[in-house]
Amino acid sequence: MPRTVRFGIYSIAVGLAVLVTKFGAWWVTGSVALYSDALESIINVVAACVATLALHVSSRPADAGHPYGHGKAEYLSAVLEGVLIILAALSILREAYSGFVHPRPIEAPLLGIAINAAASVMNGMWAAVLVRSGRSLRSPALVASGKHLFTDVFTSGGVLVGFALVPLTGLQWLDPALAAVVAVNILWSGYGLVRTSVGGLMDAAPDPETLKRLRTLISAHAEGALEVHELRVRHVGNATFLECHIVMPGDMPLRDAHAISDRIEAALREDEEHMVVTIHMEPEEEAQHRGVLVL
Q1: Cα separation, 18 vs 26, whole angstroms
Q2: ∠ CA 90-92-96, rounded to 5°
Q3: How far apart are CA 235 and CA 24, in angstroms?
Q4: Measured between alpha carbons, how far is 59 from 73 in angstroms, rounded to an integer?
Q5: At 225, is the secondary structure helix, strand, or coil?
Q6: Is it true that 3-201 and 208-286 share their CATH fold?
Q7: Rounded distance, CA 287 to CA 215, Å?
Q8: Position 106 confidence tier, pLDDT thresholds 50, 70, 90
Q9: Range with lowest mean pLDDT among 59-68, 219-228, 268-277
């Protein structure tokens, strides 16, 4: 079983444990804010299930029907997770409105804080594991899940701080107000996740630092060539696809030109394990006098 899929299964288990714990905190207190926090955990479990399925699909090798692999399944799961987050936020806003109209006294606040805090610590530890492992494995789905959980941890922390003020101040409206703040924060998180994932589906270019590193690498290993232009890079799951045109001297033997191409491909694949390189060679009259400077 691929490591990414194992992480997905672990995420489901952690999500269920956090869900039960947070609903326990709401059960003993009756707090709308803690209910909103628990409701988001349902979305976390559903998102973990969808992400695990996507990770399983994306781990399948390329085939005749999908010659570029199945990596974009992870972006689809991340988009769906973002939509689910937005729906959860809207549901929380509805509960917050109900709390304003029909305020309810909070019971056993200290016990509720302790239970919810335990769930938040569990979430925070697992979120750190997901983000670190997702970046190491080049998995958009794992990174998205980890960042989502970190958002949950921060909002839970804010809820707990404000929740503790309710019995101290006697202001019952603080409880639904906190729920509304949580909902707005979750809406922003969902929007950011959808935007990033759609960028992956649309083959958005990588960040400038990545492009700069690849251009420097090509330049350092293209000795003998005249120019490299039309450099294009895109990420598909944990794979990176790079295409470029290399201008060679017109009288250079094909064998020598091919050796330069092989040298560049080897350097790029050493830099990124799952790199797919396509190089188009052109004669010197095709030079555009732009692109990558050959050292």
Answers
A1: 12
A2: 115
A3: 42
A4: 9
A5: strand
A6: no
A7: 17
A8: low
A9: 59-68
**Quick one: tokens of 1?**
């079983």
Q: What gap in Å lies between CA 98 and CA 96, rounded to an integer?
A: 5
The owner of tokens 């906190």 is 178
CATH of the domain spanning 208-286: 3.30.70.1350
Rounded-to-integer distance, Cα 161 and Cα 255, Å: 69
> Rounded distance, CA 295 to CA 275, Å?
23
**Long-range contacts of range 174-177, CB-CB < 8 Å, 24 or more positions apart?**
175/31, 175/32, 175/33, 175/99, 175/103, 175/104, 175/106, 176/32, 176/33, 176/95, 176/96, 176/97, 176/98, 176/99, 176/100, 176/103, 177/96, 177/100
Domain boundaries, the chain: 3-201, 208-286
**Run of H or E including 116:** helix 109-137
For 26-69, the pLDDT digits (tens) are 788 777 767 777 877 777 787 788 778 877 787 777 778 877 77
CB distance 233 to 218 below 8 Å: no
Sorted by sequence, the CB contacts under 8 Å of residue 145 that are 6+ apart come out as: 11, 47, 48, 51, 81, 130, 134
The answer to whether the beta carbons of residues 165 and 64 sit under 8 Å apart is no
> What is the SS3 assignment for 1?
coil
Token pair listed for 136? 């190491």
- Write the CB contacts of 132 (distance below 8 Å, at least 6 apart in sequence): 146
The CATH class given to the 3-201 domain equals mainly alpha
